[in-house]
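Let us walk through a complete example step by step. Step one is to write down the protein sequence. Step two is to encode the small molecule, zinc ion, as a SMILES string so that its atoms and bonds are unambiguous. Step three, shown after the inputs, is the structure prediction itself.
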Amino acid sequence: MPGRGGARVTLPLHGGCQCGHVRYRLSAPPLVLYACHCTECQRQSASAFGMSMAVDREALSVDWSRCGTWERKGASGRTVACRFCRRCGARLFHEPSRNPAIVNIKPGSLDDSSWLQPVGHLWVRSKQPWVGVPDGVLTYDGQPKDFDDLFAAWRRVVDNLFTIPSVSSTG
Ligand SMILES: [Zn+2]
Ligand SMILES: [Zn+2]
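Step three: the predicted structure of the complex.
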């Protein structure tokens, strides 16, 4: 059973929107998980911060016809397609145009979100002052120059977190 206290997480992962109209299934471990304290994430979540869980698009099963889309243009000029449930409006996915192989899931939508522990915190200069950042995680004053360190930190935890179905290997 997935859960707190170092228990392992078993694939596939399932999640969905608040009303249940949109459901998704993830068949491979996420690529990275981080929290973002930028003002856009605060606005988008209508809360204190956002979390992003990048996944391989090919590992994600979802009926996209049940999602509405709003496109946001970032400061860089690149767009992000923001997908939400057509019925309840819950934001579920962000699809960055700069990397079509990846989908960012808003991971609070997972059926079991108890194991989520971001390996990094972005835009801490605009974080709410009462929000604490745990020791031992990566922190960035603003936007990271790249995500290499975040991906690497996540790879170090993912093997201990996930029960990965065994695959045949020729060694
Ligand atoms: Zn919904
Ligand atoms: Zn953000």
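Step four is interpretation. The domain at 21-157 is CATH 3.90.1590.10 (glutathione-dependent formaldehyde- activating enzyme (gfa)).
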